[in-house]
C-alpha cells in the first residue's frame, strides 16, 4: 500500500511540475531560513561544561558605591562580574572549595630559539595553579604547576598545542626553555586542543567567542612583571585614584576573574555564607556600602547574566521561524489549489471503492514527499547560506590568524552537527504535514458525485 501511494504521489507531482517545483521551493526556502537561524542560535546556546554544572561556580561581589545605577547599565541588579585584587586574595584563602582560581588575560612576546622564526606576540593567561583541574584542561605532555609556584613565582609555563607545534614541532617540550618578554621559563606542560564554547571562564571580548590563551604562567608574575590585563577593567568607587602601574592591586578596581569548584551543593551554600560574611566584615571598615548582593552562580546562570546568546540571536531565531511559518502557509495554499484541481480523480477513486481514509492517506504521503524534497533542497540552501555567512562575517579574522583553533572556532558557528541535522529532518516532515493536512482532509471530505457528473 505504501509503495502504491508513493507511486501515486510521484505521478501527481509529475503531472504539474511547475506547481510542484513552487511547493518544493517554498518549503526549501522556509526550512533554510529557519535552519540557519537555529544553527547560529544552537552554537551560542550550548553548555560548555555540563558535567560540572553543580560543582563549578563564578564568584562576584557587589562593591559598588551606594548610588543610583548608571544609565548605560543594562542590568543594574547584577554585581560587577569581576573582583578586585584585594577581595580575590581574601576569598582565595578559604579552604571550603576543592579548587579556587583567580586570573586575568594579558599578552607577551615569544623569542624563539630558532632564528628563522621571528619573535611574535602570544595571548597569556596569568592564573593560579588550580586553573587546569578546575576547567578540566586536557594535557598532551606534562602537567600544570603547583600552588607554591604561584607565589614565588616559579619560572614555569604551560603551552598550547599550537605554540608547542610552532616552537618545538609538536615534540614533548617538557623541561625545555621558552623566552617570554626576555625572561626564560621552563615548560612543565602542553595542553591538547581545547576550545570551550563560549570561553565561559573569561567572557571579556567578543562575548566570550574567543579561543583559549596560547601561554599560561603563574599568577605571581602578573604583579612582578607589571603585566597589563587585556579585558574589562572598571574602578567602581568614586574615590579611586590611579597613580601608577601597581594601582590595580591596591585600588577598588575590578579586573580579575574568580571561580571555585566545590564538592557538593552543601559546600556551595557554605561558600556563599563565607562570601557574605566577608562582605559584612568589610562593611564595618567602610567598604561594601550596598546590601549584600554577592553571587556564587553556576555556568548556565553565568552565561545568562552575560547574555551570551544575545538579543540578535533570539531575534534571528524568531524571524527564521516566522518566515518558516509563512512559507508553510504559502505551500498550504498551493497544495490546496493542486488537490482541488485533481479532485475529479479522487472522486473517481471513491466511486470505485476507495475509502475517505485512503484518499486522505494518499494525499498525506504526497505532501510528506514534498516536505522531504523541500528538506533536501533546504539543506543545500542552508549549507550554502552558512558558507556565505562565514565568508562575509569572519573572513577578516581568519585572514589575520594562522592558529587552526581560531578556524575551528569560527567553523563551529556555521557547522550543522547531528542534533541540528536531525532537527532539519523533523522540520521538513513537520512542514509537509502542516502544509498538507488541511488540503488532504478537505479532499477526503468531498463527495464524489459532483465530480462524476463532470466526467
Describe the structure.
The chain is α+β, with helices and mostly antiparallel strands. The protein has two domains: 2-47 and 310-453, no CATH class; 51-305, no CATH class. Helices cover 50% and strands 14% of the residues. The strands form two sheets. Strands 1, 2, 3, 4, 5, 6, 7, 8, 11 and 12 form a ten-stranded mixed beta sheet that branches. Strands 9-10 form a two-stranded antiparallel sheet. It is elongated and about 90 Å long. The model has no long low-confidence stretch (mean pLDDT 83).
Question: What are the SSEs and their pairings?
Answer:
Blueprint: H1 2-15, H2 17-45, E1 56-60, H3 85-92, E2 99-110, E3 120-127, H4 131-134, E4 139-142, H5 148-151, E5 156-159, H6 161-168, E6 177-180, E7 183-191, E8 215-218, H7 220-224, E9 234-235, E10 253-254, E11 257-261, H8 265-283, E12 295-298, H9 299-305, H10 310-341, H11 343-351, H12 356-399, H13 404-413, H14 418-445, H15 449-453
Parallel strand pairs: 3-8, 5-7
Antiparallel strand pairs: 1-11, 1-12, 2-3, 2-11, 4-7, 5-8, 6-7, 9-10
Helix pairs in contact: 1-12, 2-10, 2-12, 2-14, 10-14, 12-13, 12-14
Descriptive keywords:
ten-stranded mixed sheet; alpha+beta; 455 residues; single chain; 15 helices; 2 domains
Main structural class: alpha+beta
Number of domains: 2
Number of strands: 12
The topology string of helices and strands comes to HHEHEEHEHEHEEEHEEEHEHHHHHHH
Strand coverage percent: 5-15%
The residue-averaged pLDDT reads 83
Total count of helical runs of at least 4 residues:
15
Quaternary assembly = single chain
Uncertain regions: pLDDT < 50 for 5+ in a row?
A: none
Q: In one word, what is the shape? A: elongated
Alpha carbon gyration radius: 30 Å
Q: How helix-rich are the residues, as a percent range?
A: 40-55%
Largest sheet: 10 strands, mixed
Whole-Å distance between the termini?
27 Å
